[in-house]
Amino acid sequence: MKTMLDKATRDEIIQRIHSLNESCVAQWGKMNVYQMLKHCSLWEEMVLGRQQYKQSFIGKIFGRSALKSVLKDDSPLRRNTPTAPGLAIKETNGNVANQKATWISLLREYEQFPEYQFIHPFFGKMTREQIGCMAFKHADHHLRQFGC
Length: 148
Fold this sequence. Notes:
Layout: H1 7-18, H2 33-47, H3 57-70, H4 96-108, E1 118-120, E2 124-126, H5 128-145
Antiparallel strand pairs: 1-2
């Protein structure tokens, strides 16, 4: 399974990010390209431990089994998967180039990714390996959303 902990996988995702521009249109969902880039940057900040969100009640009930299901194979995330409230982007306009650079910078931090106690707002506690795989699936999901 692909993981952001692998340099070749990170490089592949970064190349796909470089192909995005202001005229890219989502093939599904409600976000524009700026909102997607900002959302993905916030997601990486959460995973890197810079922002914390409490696990939802429904996540405490179903999160562990959902995580197991999502990470069972290489299949991509389903379209229109719900977003944690803190990661939903309301503003519609922003600097796409700056947001791309921010996301890429955050992805490069996986090279030195430590083992630490991370609690996802839905899935709950995740290991370093689970985070690496989920980070790839999340990035891949949104890049496919915009045809990249």
